[in-house]
């Protein structure tokens, strides 16, 4: 077997229809496009969701809900997590950089400290937001809750 002997498998290839090459081909004249209408024109492109003039689904179904453009997405970190981080790395001040280093947040979202768990160590915490219970718990042990 040589490269010049290779042929495609039986039935795997078909002759391309040569459209618009005169009436003798049987595919001349309108070139299989029919008479007039949008599909007969050059540059025709069917829009996504087009249903032949019927009201499309995305317009039939009512819109629902509300998206607040001022909504802020926070990454939640609990007091118990701060306590375990402070014990593990012997920290007295925890900011976003320390949380990111520990793999608790990514640099994109804002950070909010929540009051779940117990805080025993005196820690100065810097974050974008605090819940009331978290702020009270941090101040109760003598730490500071600073909003960035």
UniProtKB/TrEMBL annotation:
SUPFAM superfamilies: Ribosomal proteins L15p and L18e. Residues 21-31 have a biased composition (Gly residues). One of its GO terms (molecular function) is structural constituent of ribosome. Residues 1-51 are annotated as: Disordered. Keywords: Ribonucleoprotein, Ribosomal protein, RNA-binding, rRNA-binding. PROSITE patterns: RIBOSOMAL_L15 (PS00475). Residues 33-47 have a biased composition (Basic residues). It holds the Pfam family Ribosomal_L27A. GO terms for biological process: translation. Residues 77-146 form the Large ribosomal subunit protein uL15/eL18 domain. One of its GO terms (cellular component) is cytosolic large ribosomal subunit. InterPro entries: Ribosomal_uL15, Ribosomal_uL15/eL18, Ribosomal_uL15/eL18_sf, Ribosomal_uL15_bac-type, Ribosomal_uL15_CS. Binds to the 23S rRNA. Part of the 50S ribosomal subunit. Belongs to the universal ribosomal protein uL15 family. NCBIfam families: rplO_bact (TIGR01071). This is Large ribosomal subunit protein uL15. It comes from Segatella salivae DSM 15606. The lineage of its organism: Bacteria, Pseudomonadati, Bacteroidota, Bacteroidia, Bacteroidales. The gene is rplO.
């Amino acid at each position: 077997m040589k490269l010049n002997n290779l042929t495609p498998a039986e039935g795997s290839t078909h002759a391309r229809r040569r459209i618009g090459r005169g009436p003798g081909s049987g595919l001349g004249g309108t070139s299989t496009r029919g008479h007039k209408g949008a599909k007969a024109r050059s540059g025709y492109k069917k829009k996504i969701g087009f249903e032949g003039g019927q009201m499309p689904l995305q317009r039939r179904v009512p819109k629902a809900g509300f998206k607040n453009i001022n909504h802020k997405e926070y990454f939640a970190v609990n007091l118990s997590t701060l306590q375990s981080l402070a014990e593990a790395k012997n920290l007295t001040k925890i900011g976003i950089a320390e949380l990111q280093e520990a793999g608790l947040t990514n640099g994109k979202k804002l950070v909010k400290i929540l009051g779940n768990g117990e805080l025993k160590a005196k820690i100065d915490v810097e974050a974008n937001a605090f819940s009331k219970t978290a702020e009270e718990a941090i101040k109760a042990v003598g730490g500071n809750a600073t909003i960035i």
